[in-house]
Design a protein that fits this description.
The chain folds into two domains: about 1-35 and about 110-170, no CATH class; about 190-504, Rossmann fold. About 40% of the residues lie in helices and about 15% in strands. The protein has 14 helices and 15 strands. The strands form three sheets. An eleven-stranded mixed β-sheet has the order 7-6-1-9-8-10-11-12-13-15-14, with helices on both faces. The chain has a two-stranded antiparallel ribbon with strand order 2-3. Helix 7 links the parallel strand 8 and strand 9. Helix 4 packs antiparallel against helix 5. The longest helix has about 40 residues, at about 140-180.
């Protein structure tokens, strides 16, 4: 009887847990169906007035496309902005981001109606959870049962995480459909064998209580299932532009800046188009950058399991990036075009600059070149790329960390250390500032410090906005290497408030 009572108890708990998991998935899907925020009044919303007063909104709205599968650029119907929260000048800050991408556009028509496809990962994870729980309660061995239960809990967390992500994504797709925004996937954009590079502008809203170093997004812990411009960084508008109009607007933005400058951000592995644009806006906003912010987005798959595909795509994009960088310099006539790359994106940037160095005169073409956590072979960087970078840049700064677990994994995959790792095999080259961020990098993975860490943001501001050399940045300490070579590290013997009072 004792064993039989245990059996009925486990059977009861197992059934309730499995049904509970499926109920959770169902509730997540139900939240998606009700994801549209409350309607605004029927009069003209302040968001219309605010965005029409910005530098490019009125022109951008007219060039939005309703059908992204068509390569032509046509006028889109006026979006129903009343379906989303009303914005006012005091609510959010709008950041204009220019973009260039060789990602293939995705069609929007009917996308939200096929929302069940978005939830396939959550459904699969939920099924795995149910099977693990069933196996746990059928097992007669307690150790195996405990292991299966722990695995089921991890799978349940994955189910909830995937479900939350897809609910947020569904809301983004609905917003894109409502505004006629251009959307991009993770495939290469080609016509025959020729690559296609699309140009355009975006508007990104920054919440009023934004914290330096964060790209605020909905959190499952706070039970947030949709983007709120008052709380999150939101991609509001995406409009493809003809090349001539793009460069005309870009030049106008450069000309309006005091220093006549721009910066181009090249993202890394496992990053989608939307996230790349939002990160560009966050960096521009946090740096208080006076000039044009440009995002170059190559076709990263945006998934952890597709590292090798991303490696192939980042090599494929080099020619397009080279052409784009030269056109930005030539057509905007900017005094300084700064370049910032992260992780695998450094491969595309340094290879494009290497190609440029072959046919440009040996004078500086670009301003500050910032290489953050470069996922590049360290020896290849020293011997092949460093000389090319010095020929085409006013100055080069390399940020590295000994706590970067992502690059430690990349080192194990490739068999050779990466340029973004400090420590015993750190990269130190003549006329290139190597900055060891290990003392301030306390994140779990240690790979996104370039945009997440407020101290790093302020050091980046000193480099990009003020061209301040490392020896003049008092929060850095010079460390000897060999002969005349040296690298720099953040000091930890001074109060941070002395140099960065705003963030603390």
């Amino acid at each position: 009887m004792h064993h039989q009572s245990h059996f009925y108890c486990f059977y009861f708990v197992r059934r309730r847990f499995i049904w509970g998991m499926w109920l959770a998935v169902g509730l997540l899907a139900g939240c998606a169906a009700k994801d549209a925020p409350p309607s605004a009044p029927t009069s003209q919303s302040p968001s219309q007035a605010t965005m029409s007063q910005s530098d490019t909104a009125s022109g951008d709205l007219e060039s939005h496309e309703a059908n992204a599968s068509d390569n032509t650029i046509s006028d889109a119907p006026a979006p129903d902005v009343h379906a989303y929260r009303v914005l006012t000048d005091s609510d959010v800050h709008l950041v204009q981001v220019f973009y260039a991408t060789d990602r293939a556009p995705t069609g929007l028509q009917g996308e939200p109606r096929r929302s069940w496809r978005l939830f396939l990962p959550a459904l699969i994870a939920g099924s795995v959870t149910a099977l693990l729980i069933a196996g746990a309660f059928r097992s007669s061995r307690w150790i195996l049962r405990i292991v299966l239960i722990l695995m089921a809990l991890a799978s349940a967390g994955t189910t909830i995480t995937y479900g939350h992500m897809e609910i947020v994504r569904l809301g983004q797709l609905r917003r894109a459909t409502e505004f006629g925004n251009r959307t991009y996937g993770n495939e290469r954009h080609t016509s025959g064998s020729a690559a296609i590079l699309e140009l355009g502008t975006c508007e990104v809203s920054i919440p009023p209580d934004h914290r330096v170093g964060l790209v605020e997004s909905p959190s499952i812990l706070r039970l947030e299932f949709r983007e709120d411009p008052l709380k999150h960084v939101v991609l509001q508008r995406v409009a493809r532009l003809p090349d001539d109009e793009f460069y005309r607007k870009l030049k106008a933005s450069v000309d309006e800046s005091f220093e006549k400058q721009a910066f181009v951000f090249v993202h890394g592995y496992n990053v989608g188009f939307d996230d790349a644009v939002k990160r560009t806006a966050q960096i521009a906003y946090d740096l208080s950058f006076d000039g044009a912010a440009i995002c170059y987005s190559w076709p990263s798959c945006g998934e952890l399991a597709h590292y090798t595909e991303d490696e192939a795509n980042v090599s494929w994009t080099v020619v397009q990036l080279e052409r784009f960088l030269l056109e930005v310099v030539q057509k905007t006539q900017a005094k300084s075009v700064h370049l910032v790359a992260h992780s695998m994106g450094n491969r595309a940037l340094i290879q494009a600059l290497e190609r440029i160095s072959l046919h440009e005169p040996p004078s500086a073409v670009f301003g500050q070149v910032v290489l953050a956590a470069p996922d590049v072979d360290a020896d290849e960087f020293r011997n092949r790329y460093a000389p090319s970078l010095r020929r085409v840049a006013a100055h080069v700064t390399l940020y590295a960390s000994s706590s970067d677990r992502a690059l430690q994994a990349s080192t194990r995959v490739h068999g050779y250390t990466r340029a973004g790792l400090s420590g015993e095999h750190r990269v130190v080259c003549p006329e290139i500032d190597t900055i060891d961020v290990s003392p301030i990098d306390t994140s779990l993975i240690g790979h996104s410090y370039y945009g997440d860490n407020p101290l790093m943001i302020r050091d980046l501001e000193a480099v990009v906005a003020f061209s301040l050399p490392a020896e003049n940045r008092e929060w850095l300490r010079r460390m000897s290497e060999i002969a005349s070579l040296a690298y720099w590290t953040f000091r930890n013997d001074l109060p941070v408030e002395e140099f960065f009072p705003e963030e603390l």
